Amino acid sequence: MLLLVYPPISIPSEPPIGIARLSGALKAHNIPHEVIDANIEGIHWLFKNTALSDDTWSKRARKNLEANICAIKDGSAFKNISRYKKTVLEINRLLEMAGLKKEVKITLTDYVDKRLLPVKSAHLIASAKNFNKNPFFEYFSNRLEAVLKKENIDIAGFSINYLGQALCAFSMIGYLKDTFPRIKVIIGGGLINSWVKRGLKKHVFNGLVDEMIGGPGETPLLSMLGIKACQKRQYKPVFEKFKKELYLSSGIVLPYNTSTGCYWNRCTFCPERAERNEYLQIPPEIAVKELKEIIDTYNPALIHLTDNAIHPGMLNEIIGHPLSVPWYGFVRVHPRMEDLNYIKALKESGCVLLKIGIESAHQEVLDKMKKGLNIEMAKRVLKNLKAAGIGTYIYLLFGTPYETEESLKKTMEFVITHKDLIDFMNIAIFNMPVNSHDEKDITLKDFYDGDLCLYTDFIHPRGLSRGYIRRFLEKTFKKHRDIRSIIDRQPRFFTSSHAPFFVLTKS
Fold first, then answer.
1. What is the pLDDT, as a whole number, of residue 506?
2. Mutual orientation of helices 312-320 and 284-298 as an angle, nearest 10°?
3. Which residues pair with 255 in a beta bridge?
4. pLDDT tens column, 164-207
C-alpha cells in the first residue's frame, strides 16, 4: 500500500494538485493508498499546541483564532481589507510563536531555518538526521505512526514543490527511515523536478531516498508499481482523501491544471525553458468534462486553474461550456482579448480574476525577453477586463539583464496611469536560473552557497544590481501614493490565492 505526503509549508488555501492527480491515477488502477496533507494538518496542529509568550498580541491571536478562521471561511474577512489583514496577521502570529524556540521562522507561506538552508544537500541530510528538532515533529511522528500501524504501507511518496517544504520533508523522511526502515521513500514534485533537471542524483541522499521522480509523477509511479500507463496521460484528480474542511479559504477551493509546461515556452531566462519541461495539454473538451465532474462531486466555491498559462483553446472551450462556479487562473495576453465581447463571454463562463504577466512596460525590454507581449495591446485588454468586471492580478519583474533606467520609469508610469485597471499586483526582482541557455555574455556570480541552488546572481550590464533595484522599488516605486494604494490591497501571505474572494465580494 502507498502513502502520499504533502509536507509543510506552503499556502494552506487548497489541496495540492500534484498529489490529487497521483491519487486519481492510483484510484483509476484500483491501487489502495492513503493521503496526508501534512501542510494543512500540521498548521492546525501548531495552532492548538503552540506554547505562547505573555505578550498581548499572542494572547489575542490565541483568543481570536476560531473567530478568525471562521471569518475567512464564511467570507466576512474579505469585505474589508483592514479586517482581513488583522485576521491573517493574528492567525500567522501563532505560527511565528511556534518556531521561535526552534530558531525557525514559520509563516502561513514559508519555513525558514536560521541554521539550515534547503539549497544545501548536507543541510537536508542534517534535517533528516535531527528530525526530532523539527517544530512539526510531535505532529508528524504521531500521524505517520498511526497510519503505518493501521495500514500495510510499504511505499511513502513525498511531493515537494517549494523550498519552504524541503527541510520539513526531509525531517519526515528521516523519521520514517529511523522508525520504519522497511518503508521505501520516493520524492517528486516541482522542486524535485527542478533539481533533477539540473543534475541531482538520488545517491546524494543515500539511505534516505530510494527513488526520485522528475516531471509529472503519475506514469513513473505506476511504472514502479508494475503498471504500464500511457506516458502522456493525465489522470483526473480526486480529492476525497483530503480534509477539505481544514483549508483556509471561503468555501472549498479546488485546483485543476489543464496542462503542464508552458505553451509559449520562448521567454528568455524562463525556468520552464531552462529545464526543458515538455508542454502537455489535456484536450480541452476532456478538461472541461473533468472540471464539471469535479464540480458536481465536490461542490467547490471556486476553481483554481493552476496552468503556467491557460491555452487560448482551453479558454474557448470554457466559454462554449461555462462552469457553474467561479474560476481564475494565469493567462497570456492574446489578440482575441482585445474584443470586449470575448472578455464578456469569459466573464459569463465563470471567470472572476485573471493573472497576467506584464513584467515590463517598456516594449524594447519585452521584445528582448521574447515575451510575445505588445504593451499597447495589454493596455486595451486591461480596459476590457475592467469593463467586464473581471479582476486583474498583474505580475511585474524588475532587474532583468535588459532593464534600463528608462524601462524602470516606463513601468512605473504604466502602473500609475492604469492604477484603476489593476486590482492586485505582484512585484518581483529577477532571478537568473542556473544553467540558463540565455546567459551568454553575462558575468555570473554566486547567489547562495548551496549545491541545490536554482538561481545565480549576475553582474548587470548597466549596473542595475539587485541592491539598486531593491532601493528603487522601496524608495521610489512603492512610495508613490497611486502605486501604494494597489500594494495596500494585496492579500497578506495568501496573495493571489485569496484575491478572487475580494473580487467576488465586490460583485
1. 87
2. 50
3. 304
4. 999 999 999 999 999 999 999 999 999 999 999 988 998 999 99
Helices 81-100 & 38-49 angle (0-180, nearest 10): 80
Q: Residue 437: which pLDDT band, with cuts at 50, 70 and 90?
A: low
What's the 3-state SS for 299-326? CCCEEEECCCCCCHHHHHHHHHCCCCCC
- Residues 88, 98: Cα–Cα separation, whole Å: 16
Integer CA distances (angstroms), 19 to 102, 277, 282, 293, in order: 29, 19, 18, 18
Residue given cell 525577453 in the structure block: 369
Closest CA to 129 of 205, 186, 16, 33: 205
Tell me how far CA of residue 32 lies from CA of 155, 304, 467, in angstroms: 11, 27, 52
Distance CA 316, CA 338 (A): 15
d(CA 253, CA 501): 11
Strand (E) or helix (H) holding 171: helix 163-179
Nearest to 385 by CA among 338, 322, 417, 419: 338
What dihedral angle (degrees, nearest 10) is formed by the CA atoms of 210, 213, 214, 217? -170
Positive or negative: CA dihedral 400, 493, 250, 99 = positive
**CA–CA dist 62, 42 (Å, integer):** 17
pLDDT tens column, 438-465: 667 788 887 777 899 999 889 999 999 9
pLDDT at 132 (0 to 100): 97
Identify whether the C-beta of residue 214 lies closer than 8 Å to the C-beta of residue 197. Answer: yes
Give the side-chain half-sphere CA count within 13 A for 254.
Answer: 25
Q: For the packed helices 121-129 and 163-179, what is the interaxial angle rounded to 10 degrees?
A: 40
In 3-state terms, the chain is what percent helix, strand and coil (to 5)? Answer: 45, 15, 40
Confirm if 375 and 410 have CB atoms less than 8 A apart. no
Q: Are 161 and 417 in contact (CB under 8 A)?
A: no
pLDDT digits (tens, 9 = 90+) for 101-139: 788 999 999 999 999 999 999 999 999 999 999 999 999
- The region that residue 51 occupies, defined by phi over 0 for left and psi between -120 and 50 for alpha, beta otherwise, is beta
